[in-house]
Write a structure and sequence with these properties.
Elements (H helix, E strand, L loop, with lengths): L14 H17 L6 H8 L3 H29 L1 H19 L5 H18 L1 H11 L2 H32 L2 H15 L21 H10 L1 H31 L8 H4 L5 H27 L4 H21 L4 H14 L3 H13 L4 H30 L3 H17 L8 H4 L7
Length: 422
C-alpha cells in the first residue's frame, strides 16, 4: 500500500480520488435537495415553516456531531467500514422519511440522515484522499474531491424538482435512498495507506486532539468555519423558498426565461444548481491557490468576499437577474473554504489524525448550519421575512474574515510542540 505514494504512483488522478468523488457527489446531490421539500411537506400537513426547517437544522447539526465520530471510526477500523456505516444510516433515514407524518418523526429521522452525510461526506473521504495523494498534489486533489460536492449540488435539486413533478415527495425520498445504495459500490476502490507517524512518534488520538484543542490557531479555524456552515446551510435550505416568495416575476423577455426557467419556483431550484456549477471552478481554484499561497489569507479573502456579496444582494431589489448574479458570485466562493481549511488542518497537524481533527473543526461548521437553517424558519414564522437571518450571516462572515488572520501556519513539528505532555 505504501507504493501508492511512491514515484510510480506520483499522480493526481487515482482510483481513490475518483471513487471518493462519486461518493461525495451522490451524497451531496441528495443533501442539497432538502430545501425543495419544504413547501410540499408544509402544504400537505399544514405545518409552520419552522417544523421542517428544524428537521433540516438537526440534519446539519448531527452531520457535524457525527463527523469527528466517523473520522475516528475510520482511523481505528478502516475507511471502507466508516463509509458503509454512513451509507446505511443515510439509506435508512431516507426510507423511513418517506413514511413520516409528524414533525417529530421527520426531525428524528433527519438526525439519522445527518449521521449518514457525516459518513459519506468530506471528513472521511477527504482524509482518505489526502493520504492516497502525494504531497505536491494534495491540495489540488482535495479541491477536486470538494468540487464533486458542487457537482452533486448541480445535479441534485433539478433532479429532485423533476421527480417531484412526476411523483409524490415520498417517492422521491425512496429514489434518493436507491441512489445512495448504488454509490456504495465505489467503496470497492477506496484504499489508501495509513499516515506515517509524526515527528513526535506514534501518539494516541486523544493526545493529539487534546493538544489541538489547546492551540489558539485551532480555535481560530474552529470559530472561523462557523460562518461557512451558517451561510451555506441557510441558503441551501431556504433560498429556493425565498426566491419563490420574494423574487420579481420571470418575464417572457428576460434572459432567464429564454434559458428555460419560466417561474420563480423553477428559478429557486436552478439557483442552487447554478451555485454548484460555479463552485466547481471556485473550489478547484482554491485548491490550486492553496498549494502556492498562505491558506489563512486565502480563507480570510473568501469570507470577506462572501460577506460583501451577501450584503449587496439583500440591499438591492430581488429580481431574476440579481438572483442569477448572486448565485454566480456566491457559487464561486461556496465550498472554496473546504480544501483550504482541510489542507490547513493537514499542514499544521499532520495526516495521522486528519479525519478526526477536521471532523472537530467541521462540527463548528455544522453548528453554524444548524443555527442558519433553524433561525431561517423560526424568524420567518415571526416576521414573515428572511432579512434578519441574512444580516446575521453577513455579521458572522465578517468575523470569520478577521479571525483567520492570527493563525500560525507553521506545522507542529517545526514549533516543537510534538513532545508536549499532559
Amino acid at each position: 500500500m505504501a507504493k501508492l505514494l511512491s514515484g510510480a504512483h506520483d499522480r493526481l488522478i487515482s482510483p481513490v480520488l475518483i471513487a471518493g468523488c462519486v461518493i461525495i457527489l451522490v451524497s451531496f446531490a441528495v443533501r442539497a435537495s432538502f430545501g425543495l421539500f419544504q413547501l410540499p411537506i408544509a402544504l400537505e400537513f399544514a405545518w409552520p415553516r419552522e417544523a421542517f426547517s428544524l428537521a433540516i437544522a438537526l440534519q446539519n447539526l448531527f452531520w457535524g456531531i457525527g463527523q469527528p465520530m466517523f473520522g475516528a471510526f475510520a482511523e481505528r477500523y478502516g475507511d471502507r467500514k466508516a463509509i458503509l456505516v454512513g451509507g446505511a444510516c443515510y439509506i435508512v433515514g431516507l426510507l423511513l422519511s418517506a413514511y413520516a407524518t409528524t414533525p417529530g418523526q421527520h426531525q428524528w429521522l433527519e438526525i439519522l440522515v445527518g449521521f449518514g452525510i457525516a459518513g459519506t461526506g468530506f471528513g472521511v473521504v477527504l482524509a482518505v484522499v489526502g493520504r492516497a495523494t502525494p504531497a505536491r498534489h494534495r491540495s489540488m486533489a482535495l479541491g477536486i474531491a470538494t468540487a464533486a460536492g458542487s457537482a452533486g449540488q448541480i445535479v441534485g435539486p433539478p433532479v429532485a424538482q423533476v421527480l417531484m413533478s412526476q411523483m409524490p415527495w415520498q417517492s422521491v425520498f425512496l429514489a434518493f435512498a436507491g441512489f445512495i445504495l448504488v454509490s456504495m459500490l465505489a467503496v470497492l476502490f477506496i484504499r489508501a495507506p495509513r499516515a506515517e507517524p509524526t515527528a513526535g512518534g506514534d501518539e494516541s488520538m486523544g493526545t493529539v486532539v487534546r493538544r489541538a484543542l489547546r492551540d489558539p490557531s485551532f480555535a481560530c479555524i474552529f470559530i472561523g468555519f462557523f460562518s461557512c456552515g451558517y451561510q451555506l446551510a441557510f441558503i441551501t435550505a431556504h433560498f429556493p423558498v425565498f426566491i419563490t416568495e420574494m423574487c420579481g416575476p420571470v418575464t417572457p423577455d428576460s434572459l432567464v426565461y429564454l434559458l428555460g426557467v419560466t417561474s420563480a419556483s423553477g428559478l429557486g431550484a436552478a439557483s442552487i444548481a447554478l451555485i454548484g456549477l460555479f463552485n466547481i471552478g471556485g473550489t478547484l481554484m482554491a485548491g490550486w491557490l492553496g498549494n502556492r499561497y498562505s491558506r489563512k489569507y486565502l480563507l480570510a479573502t473568501v469570507y470577506l468576499l462572501r460577506t460583501l456579496v451577501a450584503g449587496a444582494f439583500i440591499l438591492t431589489p430581488i429580481t431574476p437577474e440579481s438572483v442569477v448574479l448572486f448565485s454566480i458570485a456566491m457559487g464561486s466562493l461556496w465550498l472554496a473554504t473546504v480544501p483550504l481549511t482541510s489542507g490547513l488542518v493537514a499542514h499544521i497537524y499532520g495526516l495521522r489524525y486528519m479525519g478526526t481533527l477536521y471532523g472537530v473543526v467541521f462540527f463548528s461548521h455544522q453548528l453554524g448550519g444548524f443555527l442558519g437553517v433553524w433561525l431561517g424558519g423560526a424568524l420567518y414564522d415571526i416576521y414573515r421575512d428572511y432579512t434578519l437571518v441574512w444580516w446575521i450571516g453577513v455579521g458572522v462572515g465578517a468575523l470569520s474574515a478577521l479571525i483567520h488572520l492570527p493563525i500560525n501556519e507553521r506545522p507542529w513539528a517545526q514549533r516543537g510542540m510534538a513532545v508536549a505532555t499532559f
